[in-house]
Amino acid sequence: MLDTMRENGGVGLAANQVGSLQRVAVIQLPEEEPIVLINPRVTRREGEREVEEGCLSIPGYRGLVKRSARVHVRAQDLSGREVRIKAEGDLLAQALEHETDHLNGVLYIQRLASKDSFWKIEPGAEAEVAQPQ
Q: What are residue 4's phi and psi, to 5 degrees?
């Protein structure tokens, strides 16, 4: 999954995006080590912000979406140990919500700030999830 995500310029990828029914997500922020999350669930959300997002499942488009300002996630790592992650107002918080949404059958276009906040990007434009603004 990490190779697929990297080859396509992504920041995260959920298993169901590559045809697996496992509840697994991977996230790799620029200049960071990859995170593998098994059975991730958001246990707490606080605040709201609007951020620009794209998705490997909907190539060539971007949108302005509503995301939480702070998220708490619980999951297991590859060794089966519990992992707890707290993220606030950054790309990690955004990616955690985005990938757990995928595993719950929700696409980012379902969280658009408005009907007009979805657009086609020019060919060759950067396709990965943008830094929150």
A: -60, -45
Task: Provide the whole-model pTM.
Answer: 0.90
In whole numbers, what is the pLDDT of the chain averaged over residues? 93
- The pLDDT tens digits for 89-105 are 999 999 999 999 999 99
Domains defined along the chain, listed by start:
2-120 (3.90.45.10)
Q: How far is CA 49 from CA 45, 64, 67, 110, 111, in A?
A: 12, 10, 5, 15, 12
Check if 99 is active-site: yes
Catalytic, out of 53, 97, 99, 128: 99
Per-residue pLDDT tens for 6-22?
999 999 999 999 999 99
Name the DSSP letter for residue 6.
H
DSSP secondary structure string, 79-101? TS-EEEEEEESSHHHHHHHHHHH
Chain centroid to Cα 101, Å, comes to 8
